[in-house]
Specification:
18 strands, 24% strand, five-stranded antiparallel beta sheet, 9 helices
């Protein structure tokens, strides 16, 4: 277990932003993770748990407390059953399941961060969500002061949300278990139209696993969503805002605002999101409100590849990033009456 003091958190985040932590501890076993968490709880010390740092916006003043980097390792495959330690690099784990010929998470390739973060956000992309394959999450319950095993139905999964996100001070994820599918080397049925088009097949079709993974990686890279230290479009947290889910009444009001602003022939994106609810596109809202790719003149700008990513062009501060985010939120609200919600977790700051 490594311990540093007054250590910068910026190198531990994909934004490369954030001030120092009073104490920075790197734990490589579950027991070490639990020991650090218990010590913080016993002494009343604020605790920040860090995985891959791909979903964190840390304030310029840093974090006055203990920052815990979960660097545990463990990849165990038993038939179609997969168990990952929280510190495993997610995209590497996806690659290994594809090599093993197992379907279920192949369209989640290229997503930065650690395995332990995936159930917290209910990570999803290109038609797959981890909630579809997670069977159990093993976590340390800070309230009960014990390790617990939570079945899928106990995790409270919904769109980019979970029990763990709802109670961020209570649970520290240690391990995640998945049930994958042996489809004879084929992917799961493709649910995302863009992926199917890129592969030249129809939604619902299956393709060779490696082809599905490689296609998703190419699609993500084209949007600046695959980490590349030389590409400032990837100095981001990926999608900065979640796609709004609206009630029928809210969606009707939204459509009226769209027609008023853009003309009678314009229809906003609409996707079923459960009875009486419709999901629309945050990227579409941002673009149509006037915040196009590359928007901004300072060191924090919208990605040149994707309107949903806010980026550090080098030399930015967290306040630069937040100023841009607030400008986008206010612009979309003024244009369409919808308030965007940030997806990354903010530490010591807020929109």
């Amino acid at each position: 277990m490594q311990e540093l003091h007054d250590a910068s958190l910026a190198p531990l985040t994909t934004f490369r932003l954030g001030g120092p932590a009073t104490r920075l501890v790197t734990a490589t076993t579950d027991d070490e993770v639990i020991a650090v968490v218990r010590e913080a709880d016993d002494t009343g010390t604020p605790l920040l748990v860090i995985g891959g740092g791909s979903n964190l916006v840390v304030g310029d003043k840093g974090f006055a407390g203990t920052a815990l980097v979960v660097a545990t390792r463990g990849f165990s495959l038993d038939g179609t059953r997969l168990e990952l330690a929280a510190g495993e690099v997610w995209t590497d784990a996806v690659a290994r399941t594809v090599e093993a010929g197992l379907a279920g998470i192949e369209c989640l390739a290229g997503i930065p961060g650690s395995a332990g973060a995936t159930p917290i956000q209910n990570v999803g992309a290109y038609g797959q969500e981890v909630s579809s394959t997670i069977t159990e999450v093993i976590a340390y319950d800070r309230l009960a002061r014990e390790t617990v095993v939570l079945a899928n139905e106990e995790c409270g999964f919904s769109y980019r949300h979970s029990r763990f996100k709802a109670h961020p001070e209570r649970y520290v994820v240690l391990r995640v278990r998945f049930a994958l599918e042996d489809a004879g080397g084929l992917s799961g049925p493709l649910k995302y139209a863009e992926t199917a088009r890129a592969l030249g097949v129809e939604p619902g079709d299956r393709v060779p696993l490696a082809e599905a993974r490689d296609t998703v990686l190419k699609l993500r890279a084209g949007k600046g969503m695959v980490l590349d230290p030389e590409d400032h479009d990837t100095w981001s947290a990926g999608s900065f805002f979640t796609n709004p889910v609206l009630t029928d009444a809210e969606f009707a009001a939204f459509r009226a605002r769209v027609r008023e602003r853009l003309g009678d022939g314009v229809e906003p994106p609409a996707y079923p999101a459960g009875e009486g609810r419709t999901k629309t596109s945050a990227a579409w809202l941002i673009d149509r409100a006037g915040f196009t790719k590359g928007y901004g003149s300072g060191p924090a700008r919208i990605s040149t590849k994707h309107t949903l990513a806010l980026t550090n062009r080098g030399g930015a501060t967290t306040e630069d990033l937040l100023a841009l985010a607030r400008e986008v939120v206010a612009g979309v609200r003024d244009a369409f009456g919808i308030t965007l919600v940030n997806e990354p977790v903010t530490v010591g700051v807020s929109l």
